[in-house]
Every structure is written in C-alpha cells, then in structure tokens.
Task: inverse folding
C-alpha cells in the first residue's frame, strides 16, 4: 500500500469514526473497526445498546448501511454490530461518560476520579485520564488522573493499551478528555505489573 493510500485510509477511518460517534451517540458508541477486502468493506461497530442500531427487524442497520455506503463510498458494505459488555474497559465510552458528567455541571475532577475508580474496579491493570482546556481560568492547561500501571513501550503497550479522545464545548471553551486503559484480557499470557502510585490528579 502506498503512502498516499495509507493517508487516505486513515482519513476515511477518522471521518467515519466521527460520523458514527455523532450518529450512534444514543446507542452508546464505543468505537469501530473498518476492514477492506478486494471487493468490499467490512465494518464492525461497538455499542452499549445494539438494538437501537439494528432497529425493528433490521430496518435500522439496513438504513445505516445505505447511508454509510453513499456518504463514504463504501462498496458492498457489510455491517456488524457488537455489544460492549464491559463499558468500563472501553475508553471511548468512558471518555464520553466524563464529557456527559461535565455537561451536567459536575466538576471535572470529580467526574474524572469517579470514572477512574469505576475503570479500576472492573479489573483494568492501569488507567490514565487527561482533561485539557480552560478548566478553571482563561488559560488552557491539562490535568492527569492515574491509577495502576500504563506500559509505555514493548508488547504490552502495543496490544493492551486502548485509548480514545472525546471533546465537548462549554461556556469557557472546548474540553478534551483522553482516556487510556490497560485491558488485561488483551494480554496473552497474562502479565502482572508492579503498581506505581495511586489515583488522583497530578
């Protein structure tokens, strides 16, 4: 695959992801995977409530296939809808949860710490949450919330660290929420990390 083709593919994936995040917000959008075969595209979408995507007797999923095929020129598109059974280990859903809490007026520190604790209680080996923007003053900055261990390099970092970023626009400006989660289910065989420090802002 040429360099130009790689860039085009990445651009398509970013645009498709943003489109689906808006389109499937009420279904609890948790991300997508796009696969290209010689004659078709295969799209897998992860959501909390698959029924809202599939619709009555599949009418929703058929309409979505038609819409995506036309909007993004995806030939012979097949669409799979998978349920996210443990939302606390899905960084996209957790980032969106923080955004929703902040939109309701909950202080960002409380929202981030609540989500951090929920993630770790579900068995994550580590989690890092970064909230950036005009958090308290007119000057933009960021704050980090961490628990457990986040591998930065090597095989564990490549296969087990999942991350997502979601933004929200409030009166003071735009907040960015980035969540990184170390999912033990992705490590084969399981690996134990030595914990370094606890949760909280830094």
Result:
């Amino acid at each position: 695959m040429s360099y130009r083709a790689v860039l085009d593919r990445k651009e398509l994936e970013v645009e498709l992801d943003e489109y689906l995040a808006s389109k499937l917000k009420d279904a609890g959008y948790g991300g997508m995977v796009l696969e290209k075969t010689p004659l078709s595209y295969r799209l897998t979408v992860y959501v909390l409530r698959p029924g809202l995507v599939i619709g009555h007797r599949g009418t929703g999923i058929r309409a979505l296939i038609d819409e995506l095929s036309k909007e993004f020129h995806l030939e012979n598109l097949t669409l799979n809808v998978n349920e996210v059974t443990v939302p606390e280990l899905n960084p996209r859903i957790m980032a969106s949860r923080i955004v929703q809490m902040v939109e309701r007026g909950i202080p960002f520190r409380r929202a981030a710490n609540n989500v951090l604790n929920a993630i770790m209680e579900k068995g994550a080996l580590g989690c890092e949450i970064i909230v950036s923007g005009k958090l308290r003053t007119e000057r933009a900055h960021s704050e980090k919330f961490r628990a457990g261990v986040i591998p930065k390099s090597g095989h564990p970092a490549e296969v087990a660290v999942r991350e997502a970023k979601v933004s929200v626009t409030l009166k003071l400006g735009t907040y960015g929420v980035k969540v990184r989660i170390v999912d033990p289910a992705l490590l084969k065989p399981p690996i134990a990390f030595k914990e370094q420090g606890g949760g909280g802002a830094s």
